[in-house]
């Protein structure tokens, strides 16, 4: 899916080669890739202020490498930008919300956080845990959109904040059910409306 992708069979992401080049060299050093293929090492080196020489027996590979050096296209990696810690925090939030259930975490999906091990009529139960910066309805819409074409057995949003702005039944996408975390349920039962009073 990366915009830097050329279709070359052994092409690696520029971000990966940049990490290797950065670890193994300094600015103005020379980097040699004797089997340069699509030229990823050369692009990585150029972007980091290194000199680079690429060698390949394929004229097509050399032409592709030259083209990539002229264009300098590098895809951005969300993981590299936000860092691993953001994903760890997300996994921690999901595990806290789904404690006591057997599930598999769904990685790198904007709408689905987990699949229950137990299915409904042989189809997966897809779960999204509401983020602090989104409403329950936004979480439900993300889940509903991500589940399109996947034939889920059930769609469940875990509500993590106290929010009584509008009746959920009027705004939820069809088929999405909402369950509250116990702390949210307790606060709502007691009649408090300030989510900051929920113990984190």
Helix count, DSSP H or I runs of 4 or more residues: 8
Shape: elongated
**Pattern of helices and strands:** HEHEHHHEEEHEHEH
Mean pLDDT: 83
Fold and architecture overview:
By secondary structure, this protein is α/β, with parallel strands linked by helices. It has helices at residues 14-24, 40-47, 59-71, 78-82, 84-97, 136-147, 168-171, 182-190, and strands at 30-33, 51-54, 103-105, 114-116, 125-129, 154-159, 176-180. The strands form 2 sheets. A 5-stranded mixed sheet has the order 3-4-5-6-7. The chain has a two-stranded parallel sheet with strand order 1-2. Strand 5 (125-129), helix 6 and strand 6 form a beta-alpha-beta unit. Helix 1 (14-24) crosses helix 2 (40-47).
Key attributes of the depicted protein:
200 residues, five-stranded mixed sheet, elongated, two-stranded parallel sheet, 8 helices, alpha/beta, single chain, 38% helix, 7 strands
Provide a concise account of the structure shown.
Helices cover 38% and strands 15% of the residues. By secondary structure, the protein is α/β, with parallel strands linked by helices. The strands form 2 sheets. It has a 5-stranded mixed sheet.
Present the secondary structure layout.
Layout: H1 14-24, E1 30-33, H2 40-47, E2 51-54, H3 59-71, H4 78-82, H5 84-97, E3 103-105, E4 114-116, E5 125-129, H6 136-147, E6 154-159, H7 168-171, E7 176-180, H8 182-190
Parallel strand pairs: 1-2, 5-6, 6-7
Antiparallel strand pairs: 3-4, 4-5
Helix pairs in contact: 1-2
